[in-house]
Structure formats: C-alpha cells, structure tokens
Amino acid sequence: MPHLKTIEGQLDASGLTFAITASRFNDFIVDRLLGGAVDFLVRHGAARQDITLVRVPGAYETPLAAKKLAASGKYDAVICLGAVIRGATPHFDYVAGECAKGLAQVMLESGVPIGFGVLTTDTLEQAVERAGSKAGNKGADAAAAALEMVRVMKQI
After folding, report:
1. How many CA atoms lie within 13 A of 83 on its CB side?
2. 22 strand-pairing partners
3. Nearest in space to 148 (alpha carbons), one of 7, 2, 22
4. How many beta carbons lie within 10 A of that of residue 4, not counting itself?
5. Catalytic positions, written as ranges
6. C-alpha atoms less than 13 angstroms from C-alpha of 5 in its C-beta half-sphere
7. N or C: the chain end with fewer CB closer than 10 Å?
8. Does residue 39 belong to any structural domain of this protein?
9. Rounded CA gap, 96 and 87, in Å?
10. Residue pLDDT, tens place only, 51-74
11. pTM above 0.90, yes or no
12. Angle value at C-alpha 68, between 50 and 90, nearest 5 degrees
C-alpha cells in the first residue's frame, strides 16, 4: 500500500488547558471518574493549574456548562463526567439521551473537543466497575479521547 499522510493525536497534554465538568448527582461514582481524568492528564504532562473543575447538579445540566466553557476560548478541551443509573422509571432515558445529544451538539458547534465521561449503566455495580475497578476508569478514557482530539484538531 502506498504511503498515506496520517494525522494522529499524540497523548501529550503539556501546555494545554482543560475544563472538567463533574456532576454532584451520584458523586461517589463521579469523584472516582474525576480522579481518573485528572490523574491521566497530569501523567501525560498537564499542569494541575491548567485544569479547571466545574461542579454541576447532574448530567442533564452538563451540556449547558460545557457550552459556556467551550465558548469561553479558555480551554483546549472540556471533559464531562457524570453517572446516570437506570431506575424503575423512564427518567434515565431522557437524562442520558439529552445529555449525550447536548454534548455532541456543543462539540460540533464550538469545535472544541468534548470528552464524554458520563456513565449510563443499568446498575450501581456496573457504574462502580467503570469508575476504576474491573472495567477501567471511564473518566481517564474520556480525558484520553479529549486529549487525542485536541492534538488531531491542531494538525487538521
């Protein structure tokens, strides 16, 4: 196969600024996601003073905060963390769906990468698994995706 010019994002966070939204609802899970995201960024070169944490009530409110952060021009990426755990009512479907749609819209309209670290699980056990135990830490994964996209977008 002939050589292709390839654009890839390097996982180097040095010199970049990040905002992280973290929902207070299910904070015992979200705080683990937050720890994973911050740890990932710092281990990949981000300075702690270049990471801003914004607490929001829940996943439903996350897109509005992300929109304002992205529009500010202060951040290279916004990482959004939350946990929506299915209950006995359809509330889960509305919150999870609107959060995901809203964050996608913010990313597309602003051009600022959004790391999607909002867990949508059927059980508390599944959330715990994704917040730092068996299934890794989805907060770290969201930070990695956001960082990679920042580096990709700077090359395009």
Report:
1. 26
2. 55, 81
3. 7
4. 5
5. 91
6. 2
7. N
8. yes
9. 12
10. 999 999 999 999 999 999 999 999
11. yes
12. 110
